[in-house]
Amino acid sequence: MKPTVRRIVTSILCLVVVIILNFLLPRMMPGDPVLMLTGIDEDAISQAQYEMYKEKLGLDRPLIEQFADYISDLSGGNLGYSYHYKDTVANIMAQRVPATLQVAIPTIIISSLCALFLGYITGYRKNSKLDTLLTSSFIVVHAVPSFLLAMIMVTVFAYHLGWFPLGGLSSIRVPDSAFLAFLDRLKHLVLPVTTLTIASVPGKYLLLRNITAAAKDDKYVIYARARGLSEKRIIFVHILRNTVQPFITMVGLNVGFIIAGSMIIENIFSINGMGTLIYQATSSRDFPTLQGCLFITALAVVIANIITDIICVAIDPKVRYGVYESD
Amino acid sequence: MFKRKLVKIIPFLLALVLLISTFASCNENGGKTTNPAAGKIDTLVVGTTMAIEKASRSEYYFDVLSGTITQMALVRVDESGAYQPLMAEFETSDSKTWTFTITDGLTWHDGTPVTAEDVKFTIEYLDLQNNGGYLSRYEDIAVLNDRQIKLVLKTANARHLSNFTAMRIIPKHIYDGVADMSTVAEELATIGCGPYKFVRFDKNAGVIEFTAYKDYVGGVPNVKTVIFKMYSNADTMNLALKAEEIDMVYYYAGGVDITAAADFVKNGNITISTVKDASNTAVLVFNNNKAPCNDILIRKAIAAAIDYDKFLELFGSEYSTPSRTGFIPEGTAGFIETEVLTRNLDAARAYLAEAGAVDSNNDGIVEYHGEPLVIELLVRSDKPIYTRYAELLQLNLAEVGIKITLKIVDVAEFRSISEKEHTNQMMVTKFTAYGMSSGAGMGSSYMSGLGTSSGQGQIMDAAYAEIVDRLGSATSMEEYFAAAADCQKYYAANTSSVALYWDCYIQAYNNRLSGFIIDGTFGLLNMPTWFSIEEQTD
Amino acid sequence: MNLIKRLARKEYIPLYIGMALMSVFVAFSLFPSLFAPYHPKEMFAAWQGVSAAHLLGTNDIGYDIFSELVYASSTTLIVGITAALVSLLIGSAIGIMAGFLSGWKGEILDGIVNVFLLIPMLPMAIVVAAYLGPGLNNIILVIAVLGWCATARAVRAKTKQLKQTPFVESLVILGIPKRQIMLKHIFPNLTEIALAKYIMSVGSFMLMEAALSFLGLGDPTKVTWGGMINLAYKCGGFSKGALNWYLPPGICIAMCVLAFFCVNYYFEKKALQVDGDKRSYLD
Question: A256: domain range?
């Protein structure tokens, strides 16, 4: 099998596994989803209500029937209806996904560029003072839990210094003009994006540094030098081209990491995103929402991977011919 | 060579830093300007942790929140537990036939007058929507005229008005024929008849805004614009209150954490006030129908072994009070004074000995029916405080030779076990004021094991069932209070469950604010408050 | 003299730092009562600040924070070490088979590794943790079950590499059973990479435990560093600015993870010298 085809097959398999796990895991959890339709502080649910919701949720039918329904809904693009939120899962997610993306996309871009830039410099000059300093400090940062970082950020920059808002994505009164509203949003994004960026740079940095360092000593660099090419050209054309491919693969894999990271910090920054939704859906046993969220998250990761594969094939002929198949 | 590159980049980095600091410095002034007219408030910003997804009556927390400001119920209950007219005057002679007269001139926010038909429609519609069984209470519902409605109950109920403090009336002209209430568009679903009308719901900003409704029959409220700001965690909200980003915090049937309250006192610009709490803050609930807690002596031994002073000291505030054997909190209408719970280890050991539980093999755990007395305590994991309670109980009971194991589960599993399966031996939780007064009241819907109720206490005793019957069918408040007293005496005599301490809700708001009226359902924020609240201007 | 000079070489520095940090935490875990002034469940007045009697003050219900910190090290370390061990077993078993076996068996195992690599870990962990319920063993299980694929990937890559070496090829030609080749000939060559991955996993699994505890999915009866931060966050320590409560456990996590990273850094360098391989396992 050609590696690209194989990757795509793996991706599809991954989605199938996720769909099955999505369906089974929540249903194996202890706890009654019908009871959770009312708050613990509210009226007890009456027997008639209980039966009605059980039927509406489809929980009175055999598991295999529920699964068949889920699959047929999913293949029709229908993510289901949440009785907990009294809305379709697609609608609920449409409200939540943008919040997460507004944090995730800048984070992926900024952290990747930072890592590329710094990793490239230190990788090329491995064991220099700058390298020792940056690498050791990034290893330290790598060891700090992201939620602690977020808590410190809020305490210092939002509470004590008052530079940034404490949480949320907009001010209580959003300015009328589009530009000021944009600035307002930007101001709210600074802390969460910075936190996640700091948390995700070290891993990428170390990878890039090592790749660059390895590429530097490769034969083609020596040949290029022998051919009398300028150092500038070697650095920016020859080495860069060879580090770009693993870099893009890494960015693709990073999507999953950023989603996980945002789940933890969304709570601290009061952002109503996917992370909080997954958490709420789990604790309230809201099966349709939970299934929808996990499915879309997995889909995002898989699509990111397929796209990176395609880009890699486009820029590197060696991938097209399966030179890297051994890894 | 790379150094030179770095030097070139430094200006860009500087520019970036500058750009970021400009965002930081263009700090908005909190959206709060004070009206020159003394006392009147232009904008009040209220922080809340209630998670609202959508501005719709079908959304529980939106419905609750709108009950404080825009959607009205027929009556309200005041701080002392007495019912007061809100949308309508009420009268009854026998607690069986109730007549409501809607305030003259009351209109919906789209200008349509509020009529008795709306009330009838509400009862029928909510019955259909929630399958809630509201209709089955009535023998007859008769609309007398545009403004009057007569409800005839099947059996007299002195506390019938309690059903109307939380049932917010629905406009018939909007919902008539709508199969699923969650499908009504936001601008229609948010139409109410209170002193404020809905302006906007901004999901991203977590903001819900209301503005004074100029045609409100009761006059113009003191605050022009009210903004609710949602926070996903209380800590960030508390920081915002301290930073004066918000003017007050609001919880429905809840309050500020004691630790946060102590911090607010130190802060100096925040006022702490308390609202009497008819909820049972921390309770140890026995499964009265399962061994070993079906043995009254074991229950009494446990109750005598608990260190109530320590509970008060660690978890209570200066406003907390020691709990009593009667189980029903002091803030409840119908409360009688029973014995204060105190620790008495000797009594606990005596009860255990009487039950035949003694430590014959000297391993520190008493044997009961030949087995070591090990009791599993069910604990909910949504708040760490429940685990804290459980650990202290574990410590206390170990002193008399009862070993407690903890089963810590999340709310979903906790509810399945305690409300449906009833396989737990005992549990720690909190009973809300609403839950304590629902059904026949006096905590019966929590404690009774008979009927369709979820009944965590699982009391199957016929004597108790008789008391609950009397509570439910009382035709006058006197009759109800007599039954309530018997109920508390029953709890005290049987140690059906143990209240660990009693607390009140601690509310927090900026010092500039004053003039709050306290409501039995909604606490600080309620319809009358909007006409009495004031802001001090410097 | 020569020995001292050799031991003082620059390349040993990370190893020394790592070992020093690690020995502190190991000492804490083995003899907590020696270091902790009080039992972690002993109650004092709540919310005390830093003082001589309470080095880091007390928390919301009056537990001595420093004592908790010391007692928490063993639970945190146990979670990291055991979870990493379980994931090492799963990861190397699947990795070696995925790398060595050809045909449909290899394809399937390969597929399993790739699928697990793609599944978003934390969202799944939340669901699985809720499914299994709180408890130290369950947390270890959750982390191990979802975290073995990094090891498997590294082992698979190395096995594929070894498979193409002449010595393995000759073994195959000689008709030695596959199981024997995998266990007797390939496995010994994998110890270095497995060890490196293991040390890395301990560090990252401790971070994972902290994250799960922070989300409230940990074992509330056991004190761990992540659990301490979670409690500080939920019981008012964060809004009161009680840095003495939530910062020390965070620093401990970071230090402990750092210790494992440092040790790994040394072993990796050594492995690189032997192998001539330039790829780092730190990614």
Answer: 99-316
pLDDT above 50: residue C280: no
Residues of chain A found within 8 Å of residue C257, distances taken between Cβ atoms: 142-143
- CA–CA distance, B309 with B324 (Å, rounded to integer): 13
pLDDT digits (tens, 9 = 90+) for C155-202: 888 888 888 888 888 888 888 888 888 888 888 888 888 888 888 888
Is residue A282, in this structure, part of any structural domain at all? yes
Structure-model confidence comparison of residues A196 and B59, the more confident one: A196
What are the distances in angstroms from CA B311 to CA A221, B257, B258, B504? 73, 15, 13, 15
What pLDDT was estimated at residue B352? Answer: 93
Displacement of CA A173 from its chain's centroid (Å): 30
Cβ atoms of A104 and A262 within 8 Å: the answer is: yes
Strand partners, B272: B508
Q: Which of C61, C133, C231 sits opposite B409 (nearest CB)?
A: C133
Task: Report pTM.
Answer: 0.81
pLDDT higher than threshold 80 for residue C30: yes
Say whether C240 and B413 touch across the interface (CB within 8 A). Answer: no
Please tell me which of the candidates B60, B412, B435 has its beta carbon nearest to residue A285. Answer: B412
- Distance between C280 CA and the closest CA of chain A, angstroms: 6
Which chain C residues are within 8 Å of B233, Cβ to Cβ? Answer: 233
Maximum average pLDDT range among A262-266, B35-39, B99-103, C141-145: B99-103
Convert the pLDDT of each residue in B133-176 to its tens digit.
Answer: 678 888 999 999 999 999 999 888 888 888 888 889 999 999 98
Q: Is A115 contained in some domain?
A: yes
* C150 token code pair: 């990094």
Locate the chain B residue with the closest alpha carbon to C60: B259
Find out whether the peptide bond into B292 is cis, omega within 30 degrees of 0: yes
Query: What confidence tens digit (pLDDT) does each residue in B349-397 have?
Result: 999 999 998 888 888 899 999 899 999 999 988 888 898 899 899 999 9
Q: What is the pLDDT of residue B453?
A: 55
Q: Is residue C106 over pLDDT 90? A: no
Mutation for B interface: C42, C213, C239, most B CBs within 10 A: C239
Note the pLDDT tens digit of each residue in B321-332.
899 999 999 878
Structural domain contains residue A272: yes
Can you tell me which residue has the tokens 């009336």? B169
What domains lie within chain B, and their CATH numbers? 280-501 (3.10.105.10)
Residue A253 in domain: yes
Residue length of chain B: 538
Q: Which domains does chain C have, with CATH numbers?
A: 66-282 (1.10.3720.10)
Question: Any chain C CB within 8 A of the CB of B361?
Answer: no
Q: Measuring CA to CA, how many Å separate C88 from each of A46, C161, C180, C269?
A: 50, 20, 20, 21
Q: Which chains form contacts with chain B, at 3 or more CB pairs under 8 Å?
A: A, C
Question: Per the CB < 8 Å rule, is B388 touching C46?
Answer: no
As for how many domains chain A has, the answer is 1
Q: Which residues of C touch B257 (CB under 8 A)?
A: 235-236
CB-CB contact of C283 with C261 (8 Å):
no
Q: Kind of pairing, strands B374-380 and B426-431?
A: parallel
Interface of B with C in 295-324 (CB under 8 A): 310, 314-315
Is there a contact between B406 and C240 if contact means CB atoms under 8 Å apart? Answer: no
Say yes or no for a CB contact (<8 Å) between A166 and B240: yes
Q: How high is the pLDDT of residue B34?
A: 40
| Cross-chain Cβ contact C130/A29 below 8 Å | yes
Mean pLDDT of chain C: 83
